Amino acid sequence: MYIEDFQSQAIDNTPKIRVVVRKRPLSDKELRNKDYDIVEVRGTQTVVVREQRYIFHPHIMLNHIFRTKVDLTKYTEEHCFNFDRAFDEKTSNERVWILEMNRKK
């Protein structure tokens, strides 16, 4: 191998794999059951999953219960995941494909 070959390989350090996700919309069944949507896409690279906690009561079920900090402020536990690209539920699979296939390499 020549020095030029090594130099060209060293210059081309762009990632070969991209991780792209799309949040799906709630299904009809989930909407009928009034299930709570715990996933949110923030920006173009971050997906947030809010912790789902249930409290069962004989007549009602409360979901999305808030935790309490030491200073008594309420909060919901959130877990953030970063990807090369994240799309929300309004973006079709076809649109994701077109955007990713036509992006600058």
Describe, in plain words, how this protein is organized in 3D.
The chain is an alpha+beta fold and 105 residues long. It has one domain. It is 22% helix and 29% strand. The chain has helices spanning 3-11, 28-32, 93-101, and strands at residues 20-22, 39-42, 46-50, 54-56, 61-63, 67-68, 74-75, 78-82, 85-87. A hairpin with a 4-residue loop joins strand 4 and strand 5 (61-63). It is flat and about 55 Å long.
Strand and helix layout:
Layout: H1 3-11, E1 20-22, H2 28-32, E2 39-42, E3 46-50, E4 54-56, E5 61-63, E6 67-68, E7 74-75, E8 78-82, E9 85-87, H3 93-101
Parallel strand pairs: 1-9
Antiparallel strand pairs: 2-3, 3-8, 4-5, 6-7
What is the gist of this entry?
22% of the residues lie in helices and 29% in strands. By secondary structure, it is of the alpha+beta class.
Shape: flat
Quick one: biggest sheet? Answer: 3 strands, antiparallel
Total of domains: 1
Measure the end-to-end span: 26 Å
**Helix content class:** 10-25%
Strand residue percentage = 25-35%
Structure classification: alpha+beta
The run of helices and strands is: HEHEEEEEEEEH
The largest sheet has its strands arranged as: 2-3-8
- Number of helical elements: 3
Rg, rounded, reads 21 Å
- Report the mean per-residue pLDDT as an integer: 80
Could you name the ranges where pLDDT drops below 50 across 5 or more consecutive residues? none
**Tally of strands:** 9
